[in-house]
Amino acid sequence: MAARRVLITGAGSGLGLALAQRHAARGDAVACVDLDGERAQAACASLPGSGHAAFTADVGSDASMVALRDAVLAQWGGVDVLVNNAGIASGGTLLESSMAEWRELLEVNVLGVVRGCQAFLPGMLARKSGRILNIASFAALAGAPSIMSYGVAKGGVLTLSEQLRAELHGSGVAVSVACPAFFQTNLLQNWRGSERMKGHAAKMMTRSADTLDDVADKIFAASGRGQFLILPTRGVAARWRVRRWFPSLYFRRLMAQVAPRASR
User: Fold this and answer.
1) Which of 63, 144, 182, 228 is most buried, taking the most CB atoms under 10 A from its CB?
2) pLDDT tens digit string along 118-144?
3) How many CB atoms lie within 10 A of CB 191?
4) Spatial separation of the C-alpha atoms in residues 110 and 261, rounded to whole Å
5) Domain map of the chain by residue range?
C-alpha cells in the first residue's frame, strides 16, 4: 500500500489520536494538528513509523487555518487524506443555550470543517485524488432533546458532507462522515453548556459497550473502503433505520427513552 499524507485535526487525544495511530501503523505520514501545541507534539512523537509532523492550529480561526495550510503545503506539498475531527461538545435545551455557546459551536464544529476543506481540497482536486473524513455524531441524526447546539452543529457537518459528496462526484475525491453515539473517550474535557447534561453524558459514556479502539477501528476501516455514512457504535445503525423508515415509531420510542431523565 502506498504511503499517504494524512492530516488530522484534534489529533492530540481521543478519537483523533486513535485514527492517527491507525494511519501511522498503515505506513502513512501523519500531520497531528491540535489547539494545544504540546499535545500535538506528544501525539506525533508517539506514532510508529517516520515522516510525521506536528502543527498547532485553531480550527475556529480563519487566520490560524490559513497559516496551517501554508505550513503544511511548504513541508509536504499537499495532503492526500483530510480528517476533520476537532470539535467541542455541549448539552442543554434551546433556552439553556447562550448565544455565545451557539456561536462557538458553529464556529468550531461546522466552520472548522469548512476551513479544513477549503484549505486542502484544492490540492486534491488538482491531483484528482484524495479523501475527506468528517467526524460528526449520531446527535446529527437522533433528533433528541437537550443537545440543542451540539446536535444542530453536528447536523451541519452531516449536511455539509452530503452536499460535498455530491459536488465532488466524479472528481476522484471521496467523502465520508462518521456519526458515533456515546463511547468511552475524553468528550467531556471541552464541554460547554448544561452541567446537568454533562452528568448525563458521563453516565452514557460509562455505560457504553463501545471503546475508543472499537470506534476508531470501524471508522478507519469503513472510510478506507469508501463508505459514506459511517455508524460505528453498537445499535446506532438499527436506530437510524427505524427513524428513516418509521419516523413516528422512532419518535415515540425516543420520547419514552428520555421521559425518565426529564422527570428527574
Assistant:
1) 182
2) 999 999 999 999 999 999 999 999 999
3) 17
4) 29
5) 5-236
Locus of grid cell 485535526: 9
For residues 228 and 13, give the distance between their C-alpha atoms in angstroms, rounded to a whole number: 24
Class of domain 5-236: alpha beta
pTM above 0.90, yes or no: yes
Q: How far is CA 230 from CA 17, 135, 180, 245, 249, in A?
A: 18, 9, 8, 18, 23
Closest CA to 33 of 71, 1, 4: 71
Closest C-alpha to 154, from 168, 170, 138, 171: 138
Q: Which three cell numbers stand for residue 26?
A: 498503515
Which residues are the active-site residues?
150
Strand partners, 193: 91
Q: Quickly count: other Cβ atoms within 10 Å of residue 163's Cβ.
A: 11
